[in-house]
Amino acid sequence: QVQLGESGGGLVQAGGSLRLSCAASGRTSSSMTVAWFRQAPGKEREFVAAVSESGGVSRSADSVKERFTISRDNAENTVYLQMNNLKPEDTAVYYCAAGVMPFVANYYQNRYQYRYWGQGTQVTVSS
Predict the structure, then answer these.
(1) Contact 124, 91 (CB under 8 A)
(2) Mean pLDDT, to the nearest integer, of 63-72?
(3) E-strand spans in the chain?
(4) Which of 16, 44, 93, 101 could pair covalently with 12 via S-S, beta carbons 3.0-4.6 A apart?
(5) Residue 29: is its pLDDT beyond 80?
(6) Coil, helix or strand for 12?
(7) pLDDT interval class at 61 (50, 70, 90)
(8) Coil vs helix vs strand at 110
(9) Residue 55 pLDDT greater than 90, yes or no
(10) CA 4, CA 99: separation in Å to the nearest integer?
């Protein structure tokens, strides 16, 4: 079992920055792909970014590319999401997720490929 806990959410003005953290405990997540998803009220949960087991490869959704960066520190069992130039449309609950899968788009973008999920952290961007 892997337990995931997100932190770092909050209220920020448009153009501001936040860094989310996802700390893993229990069975190590270093052998898993870890991703961030987000869900806005009334919308489907959507892929934001994913990082490979080693941290050597990462991918982001087009909507956040150039603004968000995902990274991981396997020694600390923590994955980060650095979010810059935030926009009101980034407002959502952000979830981290972990799972074993090939690091291929059809897998890491698909929320159903992830076995473990955190409880989420709220990010609100005011205009």
Answers:
(1) yes
(2) 96
(3) 2-7, 10-13, 18-26, 33-39, 46-51, 58-60, 68-73, 78-83, 92-99, 116-117, 121-126
(4) 16
(5) no
(6) strand
(7) very high
(8) coil
(9) no
(10) 11
